Fold this protein.
Amino acid sequence: MRDIKRIVLTGGPCAGKTTALVRVTEHFSNMGYKVFTVPEVPTMVTQAGWNYLTENKSFYYEGELVILQLQLMLEDSIMRMAQTLAAEQPCVVICDRGTMDISAYISEEMWEDLAQKVGSTTEQLIRRYDAVLHLVTAADGAEQFYTTANNAQRYEQANEEGLRIARTLDRKVLDAWSKHPHFRVIDNNSDFDRKLDRVLEEISQVLELPLPVKEECKYIVEIVGPMPESIESEITQTYLVADPGCEVRLRRRRIYGQTINILTSTRYPSQTEKLITERQVNNSLYESMLQQADPYRATIRKHRRSFIWQGHYYELDTYVEPKADLMILETKGGLCHEEVCIPPFLKVVENITGNKNYYNYNLALRR
């Protein structure tokens, strides 16, 4: 039986999820996949009569519990339905939001209580998905397209206060999912069609389909001003012995006190395509696989700060080993240099986009 991937589309208000779901269904159906979609559960419960603005605490709590229970039930039921077809047709399940979205709108204490009520933990609920794609709200970087017209339940109105609330909610959702091993942020650094294309590319990677080879913009930078709020993590990256034409990377990421280990293999079927496969490995297997470390490459250690500035998503890596104090800023979305907006708190020392000397695989090479 084929493996069925379960993928979450999430994000802040007016992020483009509804349109993205239509594009995803059409695109992958044309590729021969049976696409199953799990509808947005909070909207269903609200339309059924629940009111998230109620002052009745018992009513509010019961509504959140129903949302979580219904989310799990729908996802599991649709997965079982998909499994009846998996032998004859490739299938994928796309969830319009997922379990961790619920946690972004309630207190940590209530969330832990709800998770316990359904017999689970935060870690189990976050890792039941193969990938999570966060579409950044239009209120952050595409304000002219922010609207409440397509969602009567939305209370973040299209004014300055509404935009502020939408950005805050977007950050809460992003933070709730940030521990997922395959978490990707789709920002507003290009037009909306390109934003949707990036969603298709990320899902294609999860499905292990060939992707076009693209260069992300990279810069050596210096910090010259106060940094915005960031998601911080520590990354240890080891390259393993591999066949010619293949890169195998073992990465350990520590974030919010948790450890995530990912094994990534990258192959190049042609000069214009690459095939990426990823899988999570436990700590025991991680330690065992370190025995296969490439003796010609050093281990890379770096501190990562991920942040959104004016609707654009950035990753700022400060290297500890093997090149101490090297600081590299990377944008996402395959922009050309002219389209990149460098935050004012960073100073570009050198544009290293496409410079193979600064690929992690080459930085690790022992000199």
User: Anything to note?
Assistant: DSSP finds ten helices and 15 strands in the chain. The CA atoms of residues 74 and 273 lie 36 Å apart. Residues 149-156 have pLDDT under 50 and may be disordered. The two ends are 46 Å apart (CA to CA).
